[in-house]
Amino acid sequence: MTSQVSSPAEQADEAAPGELREQRKPAGTKDVRRLDRVIIRFAGDSGDGMQLTGDRFTSETASFGNDLSTLPNFPAEIRAPAGTLPGVSSFQLHFADHDILTPGDAPNVLVAMNPAALKANLGDVPRGAEIIVNTDEFTKRAMQKVGYATSPLEDGSLDGYSVHPVPLTTLTVEALKEFDLSRKEAERSKNMFALGLLSWMYHRPTEGTERFLAAKFAKKPEIAAANLAAFRAGWNFGETTEDFAVSYEVAPAATAFPVGTYRNISGNLALSYGLIAASRQADLPLYLGSYPITPASDILHELSRHKNFGVRTFQAEDEIAGIGAALGAAFGGSLAVTTTSGPGVALKSETIGLAVSLELPLLVIDIQRGGPSTGLPTKTEQADLLQAMYGRNGEAPVPVVAPRTPADCFDAAIEAARIALAYRTPVFLLSDGYLANGSEPWRIPETDELPDLTVQFTQGPNHTLDDGTEVFWPYKRDPETLARPWAIPGTPGLEHRIGGIEKQDGTGNISYDPANHDFMVRTRQAKIDGIDVPDVEVDDPHEARTLVLGWGSTYGPITAAVRRLRTAGESIAQAHLRHLNPFPRNLGAVLRRYDKVVIPEMNLGQLATLVRAKYLVDAHSYNQVNGMPFKAEQLATALKEAIDG
Questions:
Q1: Rounded mean pLDDT, 3-28
Q2: What is the sign, positive or negative, of the torsion defined by CA atoms of 99, 271, 296, 623?
Q3: What is the reported pLDDT for 22?
Q4: Fewer CB near the last or first residue (10 Å), C or N of the chain?
Q5: How many Cα atoms sit within 13 Å of 130 on the Cβ side?
Q6: CB atoms within 10 A of CB 154
Q7: Chain segment 535-545, per-residue pLDDT in tens
């Protein structure tokens, strides 16, 4: 799933987004076609349950054994205006019998619950694709609301597609007539009818969804039974109607994964598990000081469920209080974390600077979103890199790491904790909304695969004065890491002063001495520069002259684009950065091996700016800031132009 070099067959799968290999075989009265992969998009009002529908389809697909990648896309409003284009919510799922990397460029199947959903998503649907339309919602008023002068179901504008008109609302209400529900209450289950229909079309398991509905509505058995009835009615409709003469099979991705136990996981959930694992490996309590903010809130929600692992969560009154409490917990000996997004980082910047001065371990988790200011709360962006690098007063260097896939958020969290604990420093972890809400299969690691993060707290004096007196110096450094000792408050004889004013080297006393300040600034920088990070790996099987360099969530689209180009006979190299401060020590040598370096980013060129400044390499930016991840075909085209240019 995350391998850098794929087989020719896998490369071909990524190279042909609109052409699905299929084999037909009879199954009773209906054909069953074997496909290697499918991209489905559910779309409707933000109140139609599209995220729940997509999530349930994804869960069953994961349990079936397919490789998968998802892209939830929803408005920032809790309940956006019904029937309007800004109110459309969608969920895209790409699943396959082989290794895949992205949610897919274009859906093969669009489920449109109303005219707004159709109009908002039709531009992404290739000709020949299937469109399942809820005809009950195509009223004159609903169509006028989104600018349809005539019905697209009747005016020929959809002639190039395989359209399945289905009165989803009517069929759902009819299926639930035996229940004591109002029509409005019954209509709410139409997403379950659609889920049942798609589950039949693609031979998805149903047991997990049935258990989910029973558990979700355990306190409302009538609602649980109604949703289950709607789900089964959708399945039965697919089985019996003549409009769906074909169903499809996508075999499990048996050879795509190493042997192990897998589960479907989102980026925020993987990150939460990574933090818990890091605290256990360090034998430290985990403390989260946080203020809810999209798209980071799920981490607070998840960690609050795990008190049994020694996790303590504090929902503060604001961003400043959240990080202040976390830094206090770090002083007290916890693995301390604060979670936020870009606007919250701005508010936390003074306390991050304090953590730099105090030299205490603190994880600052930034789930990036579109900005500036409030920006696009539910859309993705990579535009906080320079803020993480430099967004504090004074010289306040902070390490920066970034995960590349939803599942990789687990490993990135552990790596961020390793650096913070070993070097006594705050560490930025830069995820983003695409990774946070997207999901993919994750192999659950064995505990003996996890690194040992055990911390040795200082227990007694560590310095001898000229007169032979043994004392504790809070800023006496480890000669290898330059980390200062970590002393738990209350340990006899280890009392020491903390605060934001400059410290004297060694003693930690307040110092205004110019030479000492210069020394401390340079020492803190040297500590960050000296962090041990792995060399960047380069995927270059053909000695290419062009290198594409990425970071964070661009990994999937970049790798898919590289596969397409290589399948077409092009030679291109790829490297991807996890560590953005400090950079891997071999990065400069790698960059100088290539005639051209292209850096795709979901910003206006922030990594490219850093690379050009540090290595004097003429790196070329390819940028996008529309709130959506790159598409593989889009990147393949841009990289081909770079190769030929």
A1: 40
A2: negative
A3: 42
A4: C
A5: 21
A6: 10
A7: 999 999 999 99
User: By the 8 A CB rule, do 36 and 256 touch?
Assistant: no
CA gap 368, 292 in Å, rounded: 14
From the list 109, 37, 47, 102, the residue with the least C-alpha distance to 69 is 102
Q: Are 533 and 579 in contact (CB under 8 A)?
A: yes
Pick 196 or 254 by higher pLDDT. 196
Closest to 365 measured CA to CA, from 331, 335, 341: 341
* Type of residue numbered 263: R
**Alpha-carbon distances, residue 143 vs 114, 130, 137, 139, 427 (angstroms):** 9, 21, 9, 6, 50
> How far is Cα 303 from Cα 337, in angstroms, rounded to an integer?
11
Q: Which residues of 112-139 are buried (b: 16+ CB within 10 A; e: fewer)?
A: bbbbbbbbbbbebbeeebbbbbbbbbbe
Phi, psi of 433 (to 5 degrees): -60, -35
Tokens of 253: 């991705």
CB atoms under 10 Å from CB of 609, counted, come to: 18
Contact 186, 172 (CB under 8 A): yes
| Average pLDDT across the chain, whole number | 94
The pLDDT value recorded for residue 7 is 34
Which residue, among 163, 67, 71, 34, has the nearest Cα to 433 in the 3D structure?
71
What's the token pair of residue 615?
A: 């290595």
Q: Half-sphere exposure of 28 toward its Cβ, with a 13 Å CA cutoff?
A: 6
Looking only at the bridges linking them, the beta strands covering 262-266 and 439-443 are antiparallel
Phi, psi at residue 352, to the nearest 5°? -65, -40
Cβ atoms < 10 Å from Cβ of 390: 13
Query: What's the pLDDT at 29?
Result: 61
Integer Cα distance of 70 and 564 in angstroms: 20
User: Residues 544-565: pLDDT tens digits?
Assistant: 999 999 999 999 999 999 999 9
- Count of positions (residues) in the chain: 645
Name residue 248's beta-bridge partners.
Answer: 33
SS (H, E, C) 403-467: CCCCCHHHHHHHHHHHHHHHHCCEEEEEEEHHHHHCEEEEECCCHHHCCCCCCCCCCCCCEECCC
Q: What is the pLDDT of residues 178-203, one digit of tens each?
A: 999 999 999 999 999 999 999 999 99
Measured CA to CA in angstroms, residue 594 lies from 547, 561, 562, 645 at distances of: 6, 19, 16, 14
